[in-house]
Design brief:
There is one protein chain. The chain is 27% helix and 16% strand. The protein has helices at residues 15-24, 98-113, 116-124, 149-160, 189-193, 215-220, 238-246, 288-305; strands at 2-7, 29-34, 48-50, 66-68, 89-91, 141-145, 164-169, 182-185, 198-201, 226-229, 252-255, 275-277. The strands form 2 sheets. Strands 8-7-6-9-10-11-12 form a 7-stranded parallel beta sheet. It has a 5-stranded parallel beta sheet with strand order 2-1-3-4-5, with no helix packed on it. The radius of gyration is 21 Å and the shape is elongated.
Length: 319
Amino acid sequence: MRALLLEGLNFYPTDEELRRLRESFPSVDFTVRKRGDYDSTDIDSFDIIMGFPRVVDLKRATRLKWLQTPSAGVDQFTDITIFAHPYVILTKASGTYGRQIGDHVIGFIIAHNHSFLTHYENMKQRKWELIFPHKDLRHSTVAIIGFGDLGRQIARKSKALDMEVLVVRNKEVNGTQQNVERFFTADRMHEAVEQADYVVLAAAGTQDTYHLIDAAMITHMKQGSVLINVARGSLVDEKALIEALERRYLDAAYLDVTEQEPLDPESPLWSMENVLITAHCSGLSRNSSSLVNELFTRNLTSFLTGQEMHNVVDFSRGY
C-alpha cells in the first residue's frame, strides 16, 4: 500500500515523525513531496493521500481509497464527482485548530472592547487619551454560529470571561450544556443575533451556509454589534457587510477569512478604520503540524485495521 504525504503550511512532518510512521506501519510505502510543486504523474499509484492534492489531479487517482486533509475545512473536496470513484473516504483535521482559533477570537473581542487599535494610533501620535471600554465583558453576549470543535472552544473561552454565550447549530439540543446559556436551531438564528454584542462565525462552508450573513440577517443584528469571522469567507456577503460598516450599523468587523483570498487589494475592507483583517492564520500554531500528524497516525491505524475513523466527512452534508 502506498501513501503520499504532501508537506505544506499545516503539515510538515519531522524526520523523527517520518521515522516513527515508517517503523509503525511497515506495510505502507510512504512518499513525501512538497504540496506546491509535487509531481502528479504517478498519482494513480497511491492508495492514501495526506495533504492538499490539486483537485484537477483527483480524477486520475484511481487507486485512492482515503484522503486526509490537514485542515478542518474541506469545501474544495466535498463534491464526490471530483474523485475517480465514489468510494473514497474523506477525513478532516477537526480538533487540531480550535484552541488557537478560540484564542484569536478572544483577542479580537478584547482588542475591540478596550479600543486597542485606537490606543495604538494614539501612541504613534504621542496622544494621551482616556478611553472607556465599550462595555464590561461580563455584561456582554456572544452568539456563536456553529458548534463543532471550534464553536466549543470559543464558548469555553468566552464563558471564562463571564460573557453570556448563545449558540446556533443545526441540531436541536435538549437540556443544558456547560458554557452555553441557550441553543438556537439554524431557522432561529435571527433570534440569537438580535441579542448579541458579538456574532462569531464558526460554521463549515457549505451550500447551506453560503452568505449566511447577508443584508437581511444583518438587519436582525443588534445595532452597534460586532461581526467576527474565523470560519469561511463564503459565509458573509461582503457587499452587505461593507454597507453596514460604512453606515455604522455594525460597529466593527474582525475577519480572519474573506470571500476571495488573498483579499482583493482594491477591497474597501482594507482601508476601513472599523475593520481588522488577519490573513487566514487564526488556526496556526507551532504545534499544528504535530497535532495533524498525530491525527493522521490514529486514522491510519483505524484505516488499516478496519475500525471507525475520526472526522469522516459526510459528502451529502458537506462536512
